[in-house]
Each structure stands twice: as C-alpha cells, then as structure tokens.
Design a protein that fits this description.
Length: about 375
C-alpha cells in the first residue's frame, strides 16, 4: 500500500471579540482575559455572550485591498477577512491545488427572520462557500459542512483526508458562526444558558454563554516551515439523544480511541487536552467519564468557552488552533471558571500559564445528535 502523505499545519487565523488575529487572541488568553459580557435584549431579558462590535468589524472589512458592490452579511465579512489574511501571508499557495472547506452550524440563518414568501439564497449554507469562492477566485468547488458543534473539527478531518488521498495539495479550512435571535432563543428555551460567565467543569456550572467568531487553518502536504502535523483523527456518533450526550461518553471514547489508533499512540503519550467544556451539566460530566475510561483524567486540560463563549461552527477550529499554539510555544494555557471541580472522575483542569515540553496534543469536541470528534497534533520538534 502506498504511504499517505503527511498533513502539516501551515498557517492559522482567529478573528473573535477576544482579538483580531491569532496573536491578539493568544495575548488575551495569557492574561486570562474574557470577551464575554452582559448584553441586554429587553428590560427583563439579558444574556452573557462574546459579540463583535459592529463598527470595528466594518472598519476592519473596509481595509480589504479590494471589494465589490455586493452587500455582505456579518458572517460573510468575517469569513472574507479570515481568508484575506491567510492568503496575504501565503501568496505562493496555488488555488488550483487548494480545496476550500467551510464549517458552520447555522450560516446566515438570521436572514430567515425577515423573509416573507421565499427563502433568501444567502440563508442556504452552501451560499457561504460560493461567496468566498467568487471573491477570491478559488478554482475548485467549495465544500460546506454542518455537523453541530464538531463542525470546525470535522472540516480539519475532511481536509486531512482529501490531502492524504492526494486529491489536493492544500486545504483551507474555515469555521464560523454569529449569534442571532434564532440561536439565542433556542438555547434560552432549552434553559442551557448561564446568567453569568460560564464555569466549565465547576461544581456550580449552569450552562453555556454564546459567542461569535471565525477561524481558518491552512493545511498542506508540503511541509514548508511547519512543525505541527495531524497524526490522528476520528469522529463517532453515539446517537444517544437529539441534544443530550451519552452519559457514559461512549461516542467520545470511540472517537479518541480511533484517533490514537491512527496515530499509533497509547493514551499515556498525550501531553495536553483541549476539551469541549461547554459548562453544561451533562456535557462536562460526559467528558469526564470518557477521559476517565481512557485514563486521561490526569492530563492537563483546558476549556476555552469562558474566553469565547460557545462559537459553534468555529469552536473546534479555534480550539484546535490553540492546541497547535500550545505545541509550538510549549505552553499550557489556563482554563477559566473552574474554582471547585464538579465532575467525576476529577479532571486536571489547567489553572495557570505553564511552560512544559509538549509533543502530542489532543483536541476533542461533542455536539447535538451525539456527534463526537477527536484529533491529535504532533510537535515535530521532538520527532
């Protein structure tokens, strides 16, 4: 059997209320800063979320080197900014050899709120890919993925597999969502939102905060200056419930086990974990069960939800980028919000910024419908 080519992380970008660009986001995380604030809907209705300032977004978008007369949505502007920065830093990337992958849970769903007799074309998920393809003149048909909260991670998995099969040399993977009345009211009806900044894995956790962001990762079979490689990934579905996770973590256990198997690793080789950590009662408990079953409960673990809120289609991609940065910088980033551990078995929640030699990082994510994702990144400095 012909050996599959290695897939390398070439570049990344995070655009979020926490910071414009990955470096700005890292600076805030190192200072333990959160972007989550209280937002008022009405006199008696408020929620905590990490939201963009519309004026700042427009100012950044106006700085693009070229534009069109098209009226772009908020999410489209964020995606276009993300791609612009990545392509600007990587001008040698051949777009004829590059696949564009867009991950989102809701896309431009807010357009449906004002629709009357017909469904707006831009509210359809595939329209995002078409908009980006047209704007930057991508040569290949874009791929759009939507699989609940693992969408951003699934985009990385699909990109990796396409590159391994030599269908393309490069993959530009995007993930993004913005907060709308649809998403806000849905989680309020589920009574799954905290009335304060969320507390992943804490005994007093009460639910999620919402967040909006976009992120992008450039993958390639050409190593260039990369020191990070994807060595294992998998998805699994436990089909437990439309919104509730398996109480035993069955799907997550299978996803992590499969990723470890592809990477030819034992669980003991993992140096750090970037977990889903939504701060809901059942998700955090499920993750603890899964990590315990695989003897991973003592590994340093970070949830980034108290920095960003839950950014849905962007979350697994943002958190994968932060795993990559941990490896590149040999740094463990602190988790926020967990003062008293409230899951069994007890997890090793990373409380402080810590220097540590890191070779392998595990990223996990879970979502509605029982979907689960796991990916393992390798630091080639220690290969």
């Amino acid at each position: 059997m012909q050996q599959k080519p290695a897939v390398h992380i070439i570049d990344d970008e995070i655009i979020a209320p926490l910071g414009w660009g990955t470096s700005a986001n890292l600076a805030q995380i190192k200072q333990r800063q959160t972007a989550i604030k209280k937002h008022k809907v009405s006199a008696e209705n408020f929620y905590y979320a990490a939201l963009f300032e519309e004026e700042k977004l427009q100012q950044n978008f106006d700085q693009l080197s070229f534009s069109t007369a098209e009226d772009f949505t908020k999410l489209e502007k964020l995606f276009l900014l993300t791609v612009h920065h990545l392509l600007e830093r990587n001008p040698s990337i051949n777009l004829e050899e590059t696949v564009l992958i867009i991950s989102t849970t809701k896309g431009n769903v807010e357009l449906l709120e004002k629709a009357e007799n017909s469904i707006p074309e831009k509210s359809k998920l595939y329209s995002l890919g078409k908009t980006i393809q047209k704007y930057f003149n991508f040569k290949n048909e874009p791929i759009t993925l939507s699989n609940a909260c693992i969408s951003g991670g699934l985009g990385l998995s699909v990109g990796k597999r396409l590159l391994e099969e030599k269908a393309y040399k490069n993959a530009l993977v995007l993930g993004g969502d913005v907060v709308s009345k649809f998403t806000r009211s849905g989680f309020q009806l589920l009574q799954a939102m905290d009335s304060e900044i969320c507390k992943p894995y804490d005994k007093k956790r009460k639910g999620i905060n919402l967040g909006e962001a976009t992120a992008g990762v450039l993958l390639s079979t050409e190593k260039q200056n990369s020191i990070i490689q994807i060595v294992g990934e998998a998805t699994a579905n436990d089909a437990n419930h439309i919104s509730g996770p398996s109480r035993t973590g069955e799907g997550l256990v299978k996803a992590i086990s499969s990723a470890l198997n592809e990477a030819h690793l034992e669980a003991s080789a993992i140096d750090c974990i970037s977990a889903h950590g939504t701060a809901t009662l059942y998700n955090d408990a499920m993750e603890a069960q899964a990590f315990g079953r695989l003897n991973l409960q003592q590994k340093p673990l970070t949830s980034y939800k108290a920095y960003y809120g839950h950014t849905f289609g962007a979350s697994a991609l943002i958190e994968s980028i932060l795993s990559i940065k941990s490896l590149q910088q040999n740094l463990l980033f602190p988790s926020l919000g967990c003062d008293e551990i409230g899951v069994e078995p007890a997890l090793n929640i990373q409380q402080n910024l810590e220097n540590k030699e890191l070779k392998f990082a595990l990223k996990t994510a879970s979502g509605f419908g029982g979907c689960n994702f796991a990916m393992i990144f390798k630091n080639l400095k220690y290969a």
